[in-house]
Amino acid sequence: xxxxxxxxxxxxxxxxxxxxxxxxxxxxxxxxxxxxxxxxxxxxxxxxxxxxxxxxxxxxxxxxxxxxxxxxxxxxxxxxxxxxxxxxxxxxxxxxxxxxxxxxxxxxxxxxxxxxxxxxxxxxxxxxxxxxxxxxxxxxxxxxxxxxxxxxxxxxxxxxxxxxxxxxxxxxxxxxxxxxxxxxxxxxxxxxxxxxxxxxxxxxxxxxxxxxxxxxxxxxxxxxxxxxxxxxxxxxxxxxxxxxxxxxxxxxxxxxxxxxxxxxxxxxxxxxxxxxxxxxxxxxxxxxxxxxxxxxxxxxxxxxxxxxxxxxxxxxxxxxxxxxxxxxxxxxxxxxxxxxxxxxxxxxxxxxxxxxxxxxxxxxxxxxxxxxxxxxxxxxxxxxxxxxxxxxxxxxxxxxxxxxxxxxxxxxxxxxxxxxxxxxxxxxxxxxxxxxxxxxxxxxxxxxxxxxxxxxxxxxxxxxxxxxxxxxxxxxxxxxxxxxxxxxxxxxxxxxxxxxxxxxxxxxxxxxxxxxxxxxxxxxxxxxxxxxxxxxxxxxxxxxxxxxxxxxxxxxxxxxxxxxxxxxxxxxxxxxxxxxxxxxxxxxxxxxxxxxxxxxxxxxxxxxxxxxxxxxxxxxxxxxxxxxxxxxxxxxxxxxxxxxxxxxxxxxxxxxxxxxxxxxxxxxxxxxxxxxxxxxxxxxxxxxxxxxxxxxxxxxxxxxxxxxxxxxxxxxxxxxxx
Length: 722
Known about the structure:
Blueprint: H1 3-15, H2 19-24, E1 29-30, E2 41-42, H3 63-69, H4 72-94, H5 131-146, E3 157-161, E4 175-176, H6 180-187, H7 189-196, E5 202-205, E6 209-210, E7 213-214, H8 219-228, E8 234-236, H9 244-249, H10 255-264, H11 278-283, H12 289-305, H13 325-338, E9 340-344, E10 357-361, H14 369-372, H15 385-393, E11 398-402, H16 422-430, E12 434-440, H17 468-480, E13 484-489, H18 497-502, E14 505-508, H19 516-524, H20 557-560, E15 578-586, H21 589-594, E16 617-625, E17 631-641, E18 652-661, E19 666-673, E20 680-681, E21 687-688, E22 693-699, H22 705-711, E23 716-721
Helix pairs in contact: 1-12, 3-13, 4-5, 4-13, 5-7, 13-19, 15-19, 16-17
């Protein structure tokens, strides 16, 4: 169904409603209007990395792990599964009259905020720190979730609009101040891409203010969203964010004023209860009936697009789709692609025939919580790293296990001395040929304000250190001298300086989903080569970063940092040795003008983020795997405008492509460069061409010095004049 048709039907339905009935539909828990045959509907559902909070579902890697895959196709496939399982659940629940929270088809995902600071507790809900990577994965996710059927499979929501990335403890009162350049270059591009390219059905406002205006009632943001970008869907507040207007931001003095400010500035749906005061606002002349009607029409347009009144081709999706064999296989594939190999002195891959005993140590080794991150569903089976290795090895080897310590408490038994499992950890290590040491965090230590056990920092991290008990455990294992592979299960940058010096290999596992343990076992023993890349910078210290509350990009992320990273954005080893040997530009200027570029893709005159368009080019790359192991890897293209003072100081990611290269193989890979790569964002926030001389860097990493040190390769440089 096209939007025009759905809107006409919505207008006809809303026209039959009283003012009170219209107003009642603007809350997330919209009641039934029985006389018009309108069932109750709860708009609040979550699908960040699987259908969440609604019972059994396939649990994929957390979003930051999806970011580490650098795989657009995979992101779309995961979203399609989420929509399928969401439909299966909706069909089953609604048939029984169950229209409770988390059981609808409007998923408040993805989170395309920029992970600008490693302290932010919710950063693992995002795809990382880069606006281009975030936009590409976000567009793929939205398209996969919403589908291309006659009706929308599920409705996606781009959140949190905009400029939201901590601190969590201040979010209800904080004013995030960002320059027009930082807005246009960093904070808004992903939202723009999701609106213009993917047709995202909903956008959610943030808790904070942006340059003085509450995000959920911002004329400036709405001008961008509905004015410049042409957004036609509905806008929803973050949960109880409108209440913050009068309780914390102090921009209004009462609930009715807050409700009026929000709806008059484009917020159609209230997650919270402040819109209970809409009618009071109307009676006091603060809101017109036309405004209330328009918001109701937008919301019912979405419901018609989903086929909730006229039926949908997805009404027949059976409950058997939930956590099906195929979906579980995809979850494992995603986990395999997401893990990042940060260090390997040759100990990996492990070989069964050379081992007699394996020690599995660490608080996250047998932890379900460390598999799932936040905003997660419920798996029917969780395969922890310990269980994955036990399943994989069977009775072939002797396995010793110990948690070694609690996640952050100083003892595992209340009546014991502090460090009560350290002696067991040393014993296990000394009796093992190799140790798999699993440390890190979980959603209780990094997450959303109010959702974690980390109340002292509201879910944010105060530093980059692992908890003290885990650092002591790492030291104890290192002292034994047993070869050790460190598996870090966390959703953000943690200081790995000790591990880099004392352990043989380091895997950044993230929160890998319910199949994570099986994937880690296969990676450790070489059934599959690691191929993930860091979607965030791992810094040496926090001292090199601006204050957490400073939203300027200066000194932040790989594009603006001035120090050498501990582990750089885009970095990740494999068991092979893939590198770009040569690169050449393919460009047929006439073809580009006529609507084709060198790769044969159709040009697009409007979508600045799309792969090909007027003035776009393609790079023809010669890629070789000089190693002895076949592997997937990620080709990355970075661009630097040489003659513009407005360009970011460091090269920026402008294209990427996941490829498989067999051992000893040399192959040709063609990568399209978007026309946006030839533009900059000026101080006024406008994107435009400001230079003619460009250099592209083509490789499997950034062109920075640290990446060269770690990989032994430097991307190939290609000069181009516009």
